[in-house]
C-alpha cells in the first residue's frame, strides 16, 4: 500500500525529488472509495480516516521536495494528497475541490488545515463551505497551484512541467534542499523570532565543511497516483523512463537515471514487493492508504 511505499523511500538518500501523478487519463485522484466507506459501521470510520490522515502526513513530512502533477480530477482526499506536496502544478482542464460538505462530512485528511495555509483562511472557508470545484486557471488565481498549463494531446502537461521543475532542483546541494524544506516547514508553524532561530540552527547543518557532499548523486523519484474510480488499487515503483516529446519521437532532454524511481498506484491483483531500487508492486482493495 501507499504507506509502505512512502516508508521505503523516505530514508533513501538517493531520492532527490518526488512527483505525485496519475496514469489514468483525466483523473489525479477522486478521493476515498465511498462505496467502501458506506459499508463501514461507525466504529470503523474513525480508524479508516485516521489511517488516511496518517499517510498524507507522511507524504507531507517527506524530507525531499514533492510536486503534485494534477492532470485531471483532484477531489476530496485527492486534493488533500496534493496539498501535502510542496508544489502543485495543474492542467487548465483539471478540477480541484474539497467537496466533503456535499456529503454532510468535512475534509478528514488535513484539508481544513492545509488549504487555509495555502490560500488563506477566508477563501479556504468559502471553498469548503460551498464545496466549490475549481479548474486550473481558477486554482492558479487563488494560489492553490503554482503553475497552470494547457493540456496536451498526451494528457500529461502538468507531469511534464513537474519534470522540468524537478530537473531545476536536481543540481542543487542535496543536504541543503532537505534542510531548507525543514526550515521552511517548521518556521511556518511558529512566530518569526522562533522561525529565525530555526533557520539559524538549520544553517549550521549545512555550514560545516563538506556538508553539501554528504548527500547523494542527483536523482529523483516519481509517485504516480492511479485512481480510475475513487482511490487506486495498487502501488508500484520502477526506474523512471524518458517521456517522449511527441508520439513516435524521443525527447533527448529526458535521460534515464537509475536513481529516478517511478512509484505508481495501479490496478494489479497480485501482491508483492521488492526493494525500491528495482520494480515492485503491491496489490490491495479499496482506498490506497
TrEMBL record:
It comes from Acinonyx jubatus. SUPFAM superfamilies: ClpP/crotonase. Keywords: Lyase. One of its GO terms (molecular function) is enoyl-CoA hydratase activity. The gene is AUH. GO terms for cellular component: mitochondrion. Residues 222-249 are annotated as: Disordered. This is Methylglutaconyl-CoA hydratase, mitochondrial isoform X10. GO terms for biological process: fatty acid beta-oxidation. Belongs to the enoyl-CoA hydratase/isomerase family. Residues 233-247 have a biased composition (Low complexity). The keyword Lyase applies.
